[in-house]
TrEMBL record:
One of its GO terms (molecular function) is guanyl-nucleotide exchange factor activity. The keyword Repeat applies. Residues 163-476 form the RCC1-like domain. InterPro entries: Ran_GTPase-activating, RCC1-like_dom, RCC1/BLIP-II, Reg_chr_condens. This is RCC1-like domain-containing protein. It holds the Pfam family WD40_RLD. Residues 67-98 are annotated as: Disordered.
Amino acid sequence: MKVVRLWSASVLVTLALSGCQTELELTQKTFVCRSSAECTDGFECVELPEEPGTKICVESGTVLDGPDARDADRADVSDDTDVGGGPDADDGRDVGPLPEGEIVVTTGKDFSCAFMPQGDAYCWGNNAVGQLGTGTASASLVFAPTQVEVPEAKFISTPTTVGSNGKLTCAIATDRTVYCWGDNYYGGVDATSDALEIATPTQIPFDGASPVFEQVSVGQTHACALTTSNELYCWGSNGNGELGVGSVGDNQPKLPPTRVDDAPLDDQRNEVFVQVAAGLEFTCALSSENRLYCWGDNFKGQLADGTKTGSQYVQEAARGDWVYSDNVVSLTAGASSACIVGESGAAYCWGENENGQLGVGDVKASYAEPTEVEGEARFGALWVGEKHSCGLSGEQKAICWGRNFDLQLGFPNSDADTTNYDTPGTSVDEGLGFRQLAPAMFHTCGVSMDDVVYCWGSNENAQRGNGVGPSPPTDVPQRVVFDP
């Protein structure tokens, strides 16, 4: 009997597999269902023995057994089943232990992707520049999740190893190299290629062996990745110095992966970069000394230094009270806004605020220094989209604020003239708990506590992924229909 541990419906189940079946593929088709009609061919919807009323799709003929099998917090496969890779890459690099995978959803301007624990990925929505990673670019819309052409190494599916923005997606593979696909006009996929669009996941090129990466963040026209030795590399557009290499302008419109200049960090204190967040033509990074550094475009205060003067050089942001009172645990950037969350659950945001996306209680054009998000909510995590932001409360409730013209905040507008909300307030679907969110421009997606992917807001480009074509916006989370 092969023992498989699933993070599904918040329980662990033991699967006794009949016949010659030797492994169970961990994809969305094994997750929560209501009837067998929701399962892919060859699978059926069965009730969990220890969770009456909760059903999952499993391969036909599978017997479920699992008394006292509870409290799952990650997808894991025992025996010899894994997502590929290992302690050493094919080129001999030591890639270290791999983090445990989980379902992660990412969103771009008009598309969405879901990365699975076993290393596969699925995307849906607009595919005009190959942002769905299916091998072809097409003006036609993709209504439901379609499998990405995943490299042999597979992807590491965690919130810090995959990302989408604009029309670009990047992911770290189990060999610890970075793959990207989609818009290549600015070199976000491969700055050495003349192709304007690359529809197949492509390994970011290096002269010699690739560094060993552990984090990636995707801006709209550039991307950055952090190595296991805390070296930061960025590539793509450099029109405003967002790559942090001390140059800017038309003489270097796009660059292959180049190491960010970390000279401003304090060598005496062994200060290094520990997190990175790429936005629209700017980048911010958090250091081991709880300091924030930003560079690139600053027209809307994105560099958090109290000015609106851009910089192609890495520079420290304004410190403010948060530096001395709260250790930062997460950093996130959207288009022209960014936020940090402290250990206390307090959040601080800066940059563009024309739609109230900073959550600071007004719709002022911009803030050039980190400003505390208003309200009583304390956040375990926060994500910034194009014109709105979303956070998770301590009760795993999703709370969004900012632009709501397309109902992307997950609640109806109070009246026809009110489409901007400048303070966190109403939760998305009180009956749902979430563990991860992904706000885009016109829509939002999230992964629920029972591992179901939902999207809401605009569906003009089929970015909600519920199997239907363009349809009106909705504030009600729509279950993404997987049929891999």
